[in-house]
Amino acid sequence: MIGVVFHGGAHGGNGAAPSHRRYQTSVKRVPVAAARRGILARMDMDLLSPVAFDGHRWALRTTNRPEAVVALLWLPAMGVPARNYDAFAATLAGSGVAVAVHEWRGLGSSSLRAGRHCDWGYRELLESDLPASLAALRAARPELPLMLGGHSLGGQLACLFAASRAEDAAGLLVVASGTPHRSGFAGVRGAALPAAYRLAAALAHTYGHFPGRRVGFGGREARGVIADWSRSGRSGIYRAAGMDEDLEAKLRAVRLPMLGVVLRDDWLAPQASLANLIAKMPQVDAQVAAMGPEELGVAADHFAWMRAPDAVAHRIGAWLQERGIPLRSARCATP
After folding, report:
1. pLDDT band for position 125 (50/70/90)?
2. I need a surface site. Which of 167, 197, 220, 277 has the fewest CB within 10 A?
3. pTM exceeding the 0.70 threshold for the entire prediction
4. Which residues, in sequence order, are CB contacts of 69 under 8 Å at separation 6+?
5. Do 98 and 63 form a contact (C-beta atoms < 8 A)?
């Protein structure tokens, strides 16, 4: 059992911000088979078990190799369980990156499921769950510089989390991510987005949760998450219900190196939407890498890269080396 002290930030059940909390994190090592380009890559993975202030529990999937030289806390896309990034984590681990994949509240290993009487929003994710995962990773590998990153919504929340915890991060990595505002989407899709956001919020209100599996987008999402997401989509401004912080002002103050990977045929996160996200952080040192199917070996869309993550992992590895982090090679090795 690892005891982790975390100071400030999140709110307890009474709404007050505690000045001192101790997370208890257990560790379990399990063998994981991650499919990569049709090949099963077997590796040992540590399953850390953070506990949030309200008792929420989940498994933090960590490739904790002793030879790692940098750590990455990775945040999944909306509706995607952490285990779906095992191949990506295994590829990065081969070059010296200790990857910890967060599990969103309500998905996969999470102890909660969204419903009419079980709700949360960005506030709980940013102030309770992510600090617990960060604390667990820090306790496991305190000597390593830490990157924050994510896919799609995970990339947005990684930026928002970094904005509140800039002292904890050495850089930002986002893949297939950008703001959801219509200004980042061309043509008919962009014009239809405001109505789609209103419909998503209405469905979440009607069902008590957002039925993502039924509608073909996301998973079983909490009403509050959909409300915060759809609000940012309609207004272009990040606000979270119950949070007093000015998230936009905090984004403007972020001063970190950043890599944004955009996939050429990704209509869910086109390059203009990534540009809008970067524009909210005028002080970041941002590099954008556009990748097509020739380089990826699969379709250059929102999710296909997860099945064959080598090219994306290679690009991340090359960028880390450019930042002076001594990975074993720019081409991530097979574990």
Report:
1. very high
2. 167
3. yes
4. 96, 97, 144, 325, 326, 327
5. yes
